[in-house]
Amino acid sequence: xxxxxxxxxxxxxxxxxxxxxxxxxxxxxxxxxxxxxxxxxxxxxxxxxxxxxxxxxxxxxxxxxxxxxxxxxxxxxxxxxxxxxxxxxxxxxxxxxxxxxxxxxxxxxxxxxxxxxxxxxxxxxxxxxxxxxxxxxxxxxxxxxxxxxxxxxxxxxxxx
Length: 160
Ligand SMILES: CC(C)(COP(=O)(O)OP(=O)(O)OC[C@H]1O[C@@H](n2cnc3c(N)ncnc32)[C@H](O)[C@@H]1OP(=O)(O)O)[C@@H](O)C(=O)NCCC(=O)NCCS
What we know:
Blueprint: E1 4-8, H1 14-19, H2 27-30, H3 36-46, E2 52-60, E3 65-73, E4 77-85, H4 94-108, E5 115-119, H5 125-133, E6 142-143, E7 146-152
Parallel strand pairs: 4-5
Antiparallel strand pairs: 1-2, 2-3, 3-4, 5-7, 6-7
The structure holds coenzyme A (COA).
Coenzyme A binds near residues 83, 94 and 127.
């Protein structure tokens, strides 16, 4: 079974994060340019939407840096941004597991986040599959022409 851990991108792993690349044709789905981690780290600094951004590295159980993503913390909802799995490691379940790990991280956190949100281009089938598999739902809501996937953060489960 595929398992992953999430690590804050910091002084120890930022070079690994910069190695994560998507295919050229996938770039418009996820950022204006690559490396995606560079965009994430820039946004953590400039905070374009006024939110607190958290940069995360996705590490496989084999110790490889397989992806990156960001969490933008709003007052009660938290948005997944720039979700990217390295092109050489896609279609192995890492994307789905990374999103599941974000849900678990939110569930165990002390923040007020009650809901996780993510948007994806309508043609991005892999992303829609991954969000659905990780427990997100789409009720027809769109933002800038993109479906908005939502997942309630349930802190009532026994091991929360
Ligand atoms: C979207 C992305 C994160 C998914 O990660 P991944 O590790 O490849 O996905 P998984 O292996 O977990 O597969 C997730 C599902 O998508 C399906 N899938 C994966 N690649 C696919 C593709 N190219 N076309 C159609 N379906 C695909 C898988 O079969 C799986 O379906 P299932 O849940 O029904 O079994 C990854 O493809 C990626 O980084 N893409 C480029 C950047 C991007 O688009 N990011 C999302 C921005 S919203």
